[in-house]
Amino acid sequence: MKHYSVLLEESIELLDIKQNGIYVDGTLGRAGHSSEILKRIPEGHLYAFDKDQQAIDESTEKLKAIGDNFTLIHSGFEDLDKELDARGVQEIDGLLLDIGVSSPQFDDADRGFSYRNEARLDMRMNKEQEFSAYELVNEYPFEQLLYVISRYGEEKFAKQIARKIEKYRETKPIETTIELVEIIKSALPAKVLNKKGHPAKKTFQAIRIEVNNELTALEMVLEAGIRRLSVGGRVSVITFHSLEDRIVKDIFKKYSRAEKVDKRIPLLPDQIEMKDYEEITRKPILADEEELSENRRSHSAKLRVLRKVR
Questions:
Q1: pTM of the prediction?
Q2: Tens of pLDDT along 140-196?
Q3: Is 166 in contact with 142 (CB distance < 8 Å)?
Q4: How many CA atoms lie within 13 A of 163 on its CB side?
Q5: Which positions in this protein are listed as binding S-adenosyl-L-methionine (predicted)?
């Protein structure tokens, strides 16, 4: 299947790339965004992160065909501070993040991300990580399962699903994706099963987020990346569900919007709080009709951009 980089043109254009800039792609994947950045920085350098060694292996030759001014880092983007410090990089001119699971990971049935293919429960973005969906589903107590499914999946029937999982594993471990799908279905009422969309989608999303510690990692990389921006530098983030988008929105707001002051209180110019950052996108940018027709993943994508102004 062809791999699409969602909101590619918009996210790259809004990075406002400088030819000699230092840029970070926190989500290398199959180098869709990284390739476009590298083409634009003949005198600069690109640092790209990915937990998935397979993604790094497959992207290396593609990037070498463009230039050799890049460094690929086999690590999660939450390690941005540590990895850039180790390479003596203090400031960056841009950070790009395309959050979520890449299409090749979904399409590889053996990775256990998909609720449509039979595979061992896995969902690890980093195959070297010990903790997987198998351990979560079979070892988390009911209360913890309930929290994960309701919090990260925003699933209305989280309690019923968690109870079914708890009961099923009393007799045998839950081994595969399809086994889990059938357990989830058994917990849902007919009106939900008859609705459009896969009934296991929210629960699988929740498990994937927990296995890969995605939301905490997102908060960490945003804070680190924003602090490292040079003046004029930008952070460009593509998200695919409301939990991620809310984190990006709230952190961008924290850095760019001054606290509201009662307009009736007279203030001198030097008493007015000025933020060092501004939101380029007060409202998120969505995919256009052409992209939507080519790639269904684009339907839920939202792009937000922050710039350092002083």
A1: 0.89
A2: 999 999 999 999 999 999 999 999 999 999 999 999 999 999 999 999 999 999 999
A3: yes
A4: 7
A5: 31-33, 50, 77, 98, 105
Domain that holds residue 145: 127-211
Residue 119 covered by a domain: no
Buried b (16+ CB within 10 A) or exposed e, 231-251: eebbbbbbbbbebbbebbbeb
Which two structure tokens, joined as six digits, stand for 65? 């065909």
Tokens (6 digits) for 297: 């993943």
State the binding site for S-adenosyl-L-methionine.
31-33, 50, 77, 98, 105
By DSSP bridging, strand 22-25 and strand 45-50 are parallel
pLDDT in tens, 52-99: 999 999 999 999 999 999 999 999 999 999 999 999 999 999 999 999
Q: Which of 61, 211, 58 is nearest to 127 (CA)?
A: 211
3-state secondary structure of 76: coil
Known binding-site residues equal 31-33, 50, 77, 98, 105
Within-domain flag for 299: yes
Residue 57 CB partners (closer than 8 Å, separation 6+): none
CB contact set of 52 (below 8 Å; sequence gap of 6+)? 102, 105, 125, 126, 127
Instruction: Say how many domains are in the chain.
Output: 2
Mode of pairing for the β-strands spanning 92-98 and 70-74: unpaired
